[in-house]
Amino acid sequence: MIAKHDAEFALSRAMRTGADFAELFVEDVESGTIKLLDSRIEGANRARTRGAGIRVFRGVETAYAYTNDLTAKGLAAAAEAAAAALGTAGEAPRISLVRGVAPNRHPILRLPADVPGKRRAELLRSADAAARALSPEIRQVSAGITDEYQRVLIANTEGLLVQDERAHTRLVCTAVASSETENQYGTESPGAQAGFEFLEGLDVAYLGRKAAKSALTMLHARPCPAGAMPVVIENGFGGVIFHEACGHSLEATSVGLDSSVFCGKLGQKIAADCVNAVDDGTIPNAWGSLNLDDEGTPAQRNVLIENGVLKGYLVDRLGSRRMGMARTGSARRQDYTFAPTSRMTNTFICAGEDDGDEMIATMGDGLYAAKMGGGSVNPVTGEFNFTVAEGYLVRDGKIVEPVRGASLIGKGSEILFHIDRVGKNLARAQGVCGSLSGGVPVDVGQPRIRVSSITVGGRERG
After folding, report:
1. How far apart are CA 200 and CA 293, in angstroms?
2. What is the percent of the chain with per-residue pLDDT over 90, rounded to a whole number?
3. Level-2 CATH architecture, domain 4-219
4. What is the pTM of this model?
5. What's the rounded mean pLDDT across residues 288-310?
6. Residue 462: pLDDT band by 50, 70, 90 thresholds?
7. 101 versus 460: which is more confidently predicted?
């Protein structure tokens, strides 16, 4: 990507004003999209971006500069800009880099860029046709495939010089069910850290029907009653609550600044005994997985909660300096224009031993959240509000009817203690998480769980 001596020279220039550490991140990315709307291909494009970012440290002071000029002169200029933020000119030390080899847990068999557009269009049309065939109330279907192939080079003044490659491929299908007065949506969006072989292994017609069925169910659902009640949350996207309400509060971005509800609680009870949770960036070909994080640290499996006890945080290099803790392979960024921060990869509540049917049969009256939507959270307090994309009322331990307009409201630190059942059917779902270092691919997940009591926001009184 760039010559070794150019990386060494740039790092040397970055250190000239008294930095105690400098790092270089170079990337070359080819990305593509193809979109279908109303049974017609609306557009297809491919793009390529290249650039580099240079970060310098002095203690916990940092400065970052980036450039899309990957010549020796361009890299040196970015290094000079980062160095200038720390102080005045001084002597540039000599830097010597040693090439390393990144492990490869995520093989890429076929790059989407090498697949004819006709084949990708066939997949989208299959999802579209299956969704529309379900009912005439399905008035619109959109589908798309996105792919990205990223090559990175990471070097730093500890002598690290390593390269890696990553591929992300995803299909998104959204169906819209309409009546005379309203629209309801259903979406399926699987993805992987893999090539086009991932899409070839999908049953895209099934995904189209599933999206349409969700939209139709919610179109005919009545408004959800409000109030405190037990809630069973299904696997897969149900894990978005743990990701948002708890996961972000375990990142060094918050913990290192004493702005997390979980600060100073290592070794303490923060959840019910049945709760175990991890962040695992090593799962082969998972959407949020990595060989190396964006600081060059190997990805790893990090235990966050064990039998309800807080066991660890997610720590990047800056967080390590602030907190005095080891790095956890959690430094991530959207692209070279962002400095990395501590971020989640594949974060989920682990499978338990409870029976999924028993959870509902013994809950009395409550809500079954089959699919979660978006929401918001305050990492300082852990307070959250999440929509239920597909929900059903439970009466006397039986699922009786679909409801819409539900939301789950609470605090992450409280909901963890209210989980009283954890099922066996662990599943993960794919998303893009936004934070200080931009949007990065992540998996959220859990088995079916039951929360003994949580506030449900709705349109009717329970």
Report:
1. 28
2. 87
3. 2-Layer Sandwich (3.30)
4. 0.93
5. 97
6. very low
7. 101
Domains of the chain, residue spans? 4-219, 222-461
- To which residue do tokens 């491929």 refer? 169
